Structures are given as structure tokens and as C-alpha cells.
């Protein structure tokens, strides 16, 4: 069981250190090796996804990532931006299926900006296609036309790309409440008309799952109006980027949400859904729970260690029940702790 560890930038190294401690505490004989991705890789090698990292990531069974990016790299040419490293590794490892659960822990019901009754018990899974769409479509660029600049990108999906993410989504729904909502913009975009058509075709293989469709603008509205109507949502790369941020905030605590990005053989990259938070980097106050929960997803999806995954998740629940909170989820009457103390608490609960 080989894990490539990519701490990344900002708070990445701090939160990854805690997840690594948790993995080590399980005594499962993981082989772990660290490499550079993102801004730190640009500083060291000039590239956000250097060859040495690529080699390690390809050889590993799973990748644990902190976060990438920061203001000091924002003015670099696009090819050298940290985000390119992230997009590069997703594409290189063919990690087309991005699973982003949004779960509201009962102890954190007050952390949401939405009314508690709207979000209490929320448990939805957003499945975002991750290696296609306008993120990677060609042609793309900025060109001169009639004496002015014109920017352009291409939204594109092949039938096979839609079908394979469709299967992932239907199978995930089968393991949950058997409700799948596919999100598109078929009233305007042909590409997403195809998306809807193919989802309907794929649904024939899963008669036990109830498939519905929603236009993305309505889905954005329904997510804040009545989010508990959803079980599993599946959508393309761009819409999924936006809707998953929105869904994460229903829980009031993006610092709690893990994610998995999987290929066809369940090799995966696991990372928190939040960013590198440069403003609090190095201060030891970041919330490591999303990264620790990402490690749990790794055990579940790549290594098939369901019991160990649940053990970590239960430890996190116990820690919350015991009142430990990092600053992002702190409320009066609870115990405010830093990154490392939160890691200690999880280890103790384990
Ligand atoms: C995400 C992020 C990335 C994306 C950025 C950092 C490139 O927003 O993982 O959601 O757009 O996919
Ligand atoms: Mg995003």
C-alpha cells in the first residue's frame, strides 16, 4: 500500500502532517513518500507538477494532497501556476470521478448560515466529472479579432466520458438512498443535452435508482432552498466546481469536507475540499479534519478498508462531540484548539 504524500502550499503541510499521523497510528504498513506539487514545486523546480512527483504519483496506489496555491504565484504565466499542477495530476492519473460529500455533523448545526431546520441531517454526495468539460476543451485561448482581444474556451464531452461518470454516480446512489439528480444546462447548451441523453441511457442499467434532471441554475437555487431533497448529484467539471463549493457551505464548515478523485481502478487522489488558506498558513490554527477525513476516504475507496475508514470517521465524530473546535468551527462553550491539538484529539479518540 503505497501512498504518495503531497503537502503542497499554505496550510497544506500542517494539515497533511496530522492526517499522516492518523494513518500511521492505524499500524497498517503503509509506505509513504513525499513530493512537491503546486507553488512549492514551482519554487524548487520551475514546474507545478515536476517529473519526480509525476513518477511517484504514478507508482503509488493513492495520493494524499494538502492544498496548492497562494498569492505569491498568482502573477506567474498560466503554465506555472500552482492550479496547473493540480489540473495536471488529475489529468495525468485519469482521475475522472470526483466525490465530494457534504455532511452536516449534528454538533456543527449552528455553523451553517442557513436555518438549522433546513440543513439538519444533511448528507449529500456531489459527483463531479473531473477530467473533461471546458476545463480541458480545445481550442482555448485569447486571440486578436478585428482589433480587439477575444477570449474563448470549449465545453466538450464525449459520450464515453459521460457514460463512465454516469456509472460511478448510479453505483454510488445504489449504495445510498437510490436517488440520483443529474445537473445540466440542456435548455441552452448542446453539450449538456448530450449529457442528459446519455444519463438516461445509462439509467436503464440501474432500474433501482430514481434518476431526475435539473438545470444548473435551478440546482444552485434548490441547494440553498431545500438541500435535503438531494441524495447523489452528478454533473460536469465546471458546474460541479461551483455546486460543490455551494454545497460545502451548507454545512457551514468547508474545513470539514473531504474529497476523493478516482480513476477506473479506484486509484485515487484524496484532498480536503478547501484551499491553501494563505492567510493562516504556518500559524498552527488550520482545521485538519477535512484532510483526516480524506485519509478515511482513501482507506475506503482505494484500499477497501471500510472498517478502518469508519474508525477514523467515528474518532472525528467523538472529537466533535467532546467539544474540540478549531477556529473555523468554534462557537462559545466549546474548546478552541489548534491544528496539532486537533490531531492529538483524533489520535486519542482512535
Ligand atoms: C477545486 C478547485 C480547483 C478547480 C482549482 C484550484 C483549479 O477550485 O478543486 O474545486 O477548479 O477544480
Ligand atoms: Mg473549486
SSE topology sketch:
Blueprint: E1 2-8, H1 12-25, E2 31-34, H2 39-45, H3 51-59, E3 62-67, H4 82-92, E4 97-103, H5 116-119, E5 123-129, E6 141-145, E7 148-152, H6 159-174, E8 179-184, H7 190-203, E9 210-215, H8 216-225, E10 232-235, H9 237-250, E11 258-262, E12 268-272, H10 289-301, H11 306-321, E13 324-325, E14 335-336, H12 339-349
Parallel strand pairs: 1-2, 1-3, 3-12, 5-10, 8-9, 8-10, 13-14
Antiparallel strand pairs: 4-5, 4-11, 6-7, 11-12
Helix pairs in contact: 1-10, 1-12, 6-7, 8-9, 10-11, 11-12
Bound molecules: 3-isopropylmalic acid (IPM) and magnesium ion.
Q: Approximately how much helix is present in the residues?
A: 25-40%
Give the neighbour order of strands across the main sheet.
Answer: 2-1-3-12-11-4-5-10-8-9
Structural Rg: 20 Å
How far apart are the first and last residues' alpha carbons, in Å? 21 Å
Helix/strand-derived class?
alpha/beta
CATH topology term of the largest domain:
Isopropylmalate Dehydrogenase
Order of helices and strands: EHEHHEHEHEEEHEHEHEHEEHHEEH
Low-confidence stretches: none
CATH superfamily of the largest domain: Isopropylmalate Dehydrogenase
Instruction: Provide the number of structural domains.
Output: 2
Q: Identify the quaternary structure here.
A: single chain
Strand content: 15-25%
How many helix segments?
12
Cofactors, ions, other ligands? 3-isopropylmalic acid, magnesium ion
Shape: globular
CATH first level of the largest domain: Alpha Beta
Please summarize the sheet with the most strands.
10 strands, mixed
How many DSSP E strands? Answer: 14
| Second CATH tier, the architecture of the largest domain | 3-Layer(aba) Sandwich
Amino acid at each position: 500500500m503505497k501512498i504518495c504524500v503531497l503537502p503542497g502550499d499554505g496550510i497544506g503541510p500542517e494539515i497533511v502532517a496530522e492526517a499522516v499521523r492518523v494513518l500511521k497510528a492505524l499500524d497498517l504498513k503503509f509506505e509513504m513518500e513525499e513530493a512537491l506539487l503546486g507553488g512549492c514545486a514551482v519554487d524548487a523546480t520551475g514546474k507545478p507538477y515536476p517529473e519526480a512527483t509525476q513518477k511517484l504519483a504514478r507508482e503509488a496506489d493513492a495520493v494524499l494532497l494538502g492544498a496548492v496555491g497562494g498569492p505569491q504565484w498568482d502573477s506567474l504565466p498560466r503554465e506555472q501556476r500552482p492550479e496547473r499542477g493540480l489540473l495536471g495530476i488529475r489529468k495525468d492519473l485519469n482521475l475522472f470521478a470526483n466525490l465530494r460529500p457534504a455532511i452536516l455533523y449534528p454538533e456543527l448545526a449552528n455553523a451553517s448560515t442557513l436555518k438549522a431546520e433546513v440543513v439538519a441531517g444533511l448528507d449529500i454526495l456531489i459527483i463531479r466529472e473531473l477530467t473533461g468539460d471546458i476545463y480541458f476543451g480545445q481550442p482555448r485561448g485569447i486571440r486578436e479579432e478585428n482589433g480587439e482581444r477575444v477570449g474563448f474556451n470549449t465545453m466538450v464531452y464525449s459520450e464515453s466520458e459521460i457514460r463512465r461518470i454516469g456509472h460511478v454516480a448510479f453505483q454510488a446512489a445504489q449504495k445510498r438512498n437510490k436517488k440520483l439528480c443529474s445537473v445540466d444546462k440542456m435548455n441552452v447548451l448542446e453539450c449538456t443535452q448530450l449529457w442528459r441523453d446519455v444519463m438516461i441511457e445509462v439509467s436503464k442499467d440501474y432500474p433501482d435508482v430514481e434518476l431526475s434532471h435539473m438545470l444548473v441554475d435551478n440546482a444552485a437555487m434548490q441547494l440553498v432552498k431545500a438541500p435535503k431533497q438531494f441524495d447523489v448529484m452528478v454533473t460536469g467539471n465546471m458546474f460541479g466546481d461551483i455546486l460543490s463549493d455551494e454545497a460545502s457551505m451548507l454545512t457551514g464548515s468547508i474545513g470539514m469536507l473531504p474529497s476523493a478523485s478516482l480513476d477506473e481502478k479506484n486509484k485515487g487522489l484524496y484532498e480536503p475540499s478547501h484551499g491553501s488558506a494563505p492567510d493562516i498558513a504556518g500559524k498552527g490554527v488550520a482545521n485538519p479534519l477535512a484532510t483526516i477525513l480524506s485519509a478515511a476516504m482513501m482507506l475506503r475507496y482505494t484500499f477497501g478498508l471500510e472498517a478502518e475508514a469508519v474508525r477514523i470517521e467515528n474518532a472525528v465524530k467523538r472529537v466533535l462531540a467532546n467539544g474540540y473546535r478549531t477556529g473555523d468551527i468554534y462557537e462559545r462553550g466549546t474548546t478552541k484548539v489548534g491544528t496539532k491539538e486537533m490531531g492529538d484529539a483524533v489520535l486519542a479518540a482512535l
